[in-house]
Write a structure and sequence with these properties.
Layout lengths: L6 E4 L7 H12 L6 E5 L1 H5 L5 E3 L6 H4 L4 E5 L16 H17 L5 E3 L4 H6 L7 H8 L12 E6 L2 E5 L9 H4 L2 H19 L5 E5 L14 H15 L3 E6 L7 H4 L4 E4 L2 H11 L5 E5 L5 E4 L16 H18 L1
Parallel strand pairs: 1-2, 1-5, 2-4, 3-4, 5-12, 7-10, 8-9, 8-10
Antiparallel strand pairs: 6-7, 6-11, 11-12
Helix pairs in contact: 8-9
Amino acid sequence: MSAPAPLALSMGEPAGVGPEIIAKAWRDLKSSGPAFVVIGDAALLAKQGQPVRSVTAASDAAGVFDRAIPVLDHSLPAEVRAGQPEPANAGSVADWIEQAVGLALSGEAAGVVTAPIAKAPLYAAGFRFPGHTEFIAELTADAPFTGTRGPVMMLTAKNLRACLVTIHAPLSQVPELVTAERVCRTARVVHEAMKRDFGIAAPRLALAALNPHAGEGGSIGLEEVEVLIPAAATLRAEGVSITDPLPADTLFHEDARAGYDAVLCLYHDQALIPVKTLDFWGGVNTTLGLPIVRTSPDHGTGFDIVGKGMARPDSLIAAVRLAGQMAAARAT
């Protein structure tokens, strides 16, 4: 039997902690897997103190993964200085992501894991997407897909799966952005992903309220009465198991988490605070509703700690493992 396809891991911002945490993650995963192939600069990765092997195809990764980090080598045009992003390298960073996605779309990779990127140099080079999520959604837009398309951002920590209805929106704009249509579309993506990517036959979704005490019947805000409760009723009529809006302050403790498989959060901090409180170092960012599997560590480029030995690989390790689990679920 041939080895399963590896994951494609894009190196991310070369002046950040990406190369360092990739080397550390490989050290922990080389014996147990899942295997990955890095899309990036082999010479830069070799400076991290772990063995590196250039390969010519993703399929070669399995044969070397237990001994060296397999890399599809795409050299950078400019010198890398730790903690100082170089705009001349921004095009390569975007190309690495695109190549990783291409491998996943062709079946040569089981999924994509993305190391952190720095957005400012990408924007300066003409990158027109807010970040990874939107770029990958564009790259996969024409690929066949059954179900409701995302992207929907999901953050995971321990047994919490928190899915965002809005992402990086100013808090003042959230009430107008939380429409019944947006809530329903997000819930459909999450419901389908729980079955397809996590093997949960009958997913149980929870819906967070926007206002304190879930609005107290309209006395502390009307969004629950006018938007969220009708949206939940529409979804249940479609066969989606979802609660009415629940007060967010009682939704994330251990007993509450046992009652649902994923929770829809209405704005950034409503999801990110409990995720980072539960597992600050090991949270994972996952994009649901795509034709491919995609995960990422839930942290940034760490320019202030590059080369100091302080960067922890926990989140990247968790992202690789989760991508492997999701890919296996899709393959069954």
